[in-house]
Structure formats: structure tokens, C-alpha cells
Amino acid sequence: MQTVIVNNKKFDGKPLSEFLYYNFNGLTKNTLYKALRKKDIRINDVKVNENKIVYLGDKITLYIVDELLYKNTQLEKIYEDKNILVINKPKDIEVTGNNSLTSILEEEYPYIAPCHRIDRNTTGLVLFAKNEQALDILLDKFKNQEIEKHYLAKVYGIPKTNSAKLKAYLFKDKKKSLVYISDTPKKGYVPIETSFTVLEKNNKENYSILDVELHTGKTHQIRAHLAHIGLPIIGDGKYGINEVNQKFGCKTQELCSYSIKFNFKTNSRPNLLNYLNHKTCHL
User: Which of 83, 134, 232, 251 could make a disulfide contact with 240, Cβ separation 3.0–4.6 Å?
Assistant: First the structure.
């Protein structure tokens, strides 16, 4: 039996199935509708036999064995010491929340906290702190741009230059779970910076492989910023082009966090993590 609360506004007024598929990565359509027919699912302690609409605060109880709810997620540890852990996140899993990367790791570690996030279907490196002091230091280092994050992105189109540092402004629409990019300042928009270097060009198929560096880490920044300049990430359902995604047979964005480099400009206080300076973790 599993019980979850609808505590994410994006599922308020949405079908039960949408909420459950998001929270249980092993749940299939067949298992869900079989459970509904058997009335093995309850909303606020009331048995249901159809795909009801759920609302913020609803309590969902599932009488389904865990083996049918969760995929057997084997996490790849790229680097670990007494203070930090770097995980290679697979796609189709959130960094935080129910049935997330963090919740899986919490079963193994007495203290574990993510220092940043990447999108559900973006793969690659995520940095975790294994104690509160390390978390405070790393959050400060991210804020001061002393940790370098690089991504590999497969984009549709060929950039006009082999490298560029892009500056723009981003607005986050929480209700729609979308962000918007502007080249000029606007009310509610925050400054963003994104750099890229071309690693590979394929003129025949009209795509490029980019090394992308985040200088500011805002929601969907890479995906939206590249789409804004006419280089949408292949497979991106929100900011990409459906016809292009179908052409390449990609259902999720071709974006991977492949390198994290510690470039400390000052000593950490306390001097807990100075040994990490100039270290790079990469896939």
C-alpha cells in the first residue's frame, strides 16, 4: 500500500492517472485500470473505479504492490567522499519529491541533500551534499558561480558561430510550467547567461552537438534559451518542434549534464571542501 498527497499545483484539476504516472515510474496503464476495476484505489478514503479528477490536498491510497509501482532503479555513483556524492541521473525521474532521486538515496544515507536540480528527462550528473555544512558551502559556491556545469545538447540547426555567450531575460510561468525568454528587460524577467561551443555539425541531417555551460541556473534555461535563438533541443516536447522530434524518433530532450568542475575563487568557510578545488567530475 502507498499513500500520496496531491501537493503539486500542476496536478490540481487533472486526471488521477496523470498524477499517478508522475509519482510512480513503474506504473503501467494496464496495472492502473485493473486496480480501478477492482476498486484498489481510494481518493480521500473513498473507493473509486474510474479515472477521477484530483485536486490539491487530495489523499490518494493505492492497494498495489510496490513491484508494480516502481522501476528497479540502479543509480550510478560517479564520485563519492565523506562530504559529497555525484550521481548519474537516469531520465524519467525527478531530483526531489515522491519516488525521486533524493528519496531513493534517503534510504541509504542518514543525510543527503541535492545542491541543484536538472529536469525530469534531462540525464546526467547531480551533486549531493552528505552533511549540512557541505550543503551550505556548495549552495554558496553555486550562487557565486564557482561551480562550472556543462551539458551536451543535440540541437536542430547549425549555429552561425562555433561558440557564443548568450545573454537574455527569463520569466517563469508557474501555472503553465513554462518559461519565456526576452532579449530585452521586462517586468518579472530575470537575467540569464548561457554559453555554447559546437562540438559536431551534421549538415546533411541539420543538427549539431553543443557543449553548453550554464552561468545562471534557472528553470528550463538551456532548453528555452537555445530554442529562442533557433536551436531547439531535439526531443524537447515543450520548447522543441514536434515534427523534428518525430523525424529523429526522440520523445525526451537530448540533453545531458556531463561535467561538473569546482572552481573555487575563495576558501570555503569552514575549510571543509577546499580539497575539491579544480576537481572535475564527468561522464
Answer: 232
